[in-house]
Specification:
Blueprint lengths: L2 H22 L12 E2 L2 E2 L4 H6 L7 H15 L3
Antiparallel strand pairs: 1-2
Length: 77
């Protein structure tokens, strides 16, 4: 590989790294509080855990729509 190609590839990679580093600090977090990570893995609470916290993952109307779409996907309707 010629030295010019190596130079341009290195320059392109450096500019990508700098652009990524500059944009990450300007973005506000998408969540409030700690991430739901346990033992180094993303954690999805169970239905019972959500109920204990008096929270729902979806509203009843959303649940009906999800069921309708799932039935449609499986060809039940």
């Amino acid at each position: 590989m010629s030295s010019k190609v190596v130079f341009w590839v290195t320059l392109a990679l450096a500019s990508l790294l700098l652009a990524d580093a500059g944009s990450a600090g300007d973005t506000p977090p998408l969540h409030k509080g700690p991430w739901p990570i346990r033992n180094g893995r993303n954690y999805q609470p169970t239905e019972l855990e959500l109920r204990a916290l008096h929270r729902e993952d979806v509203t009843p109307d959303q649940a009906r729509e999800i069921d309708r779409l799932y039935d449609q996907l499986l060809g039940k309707r």
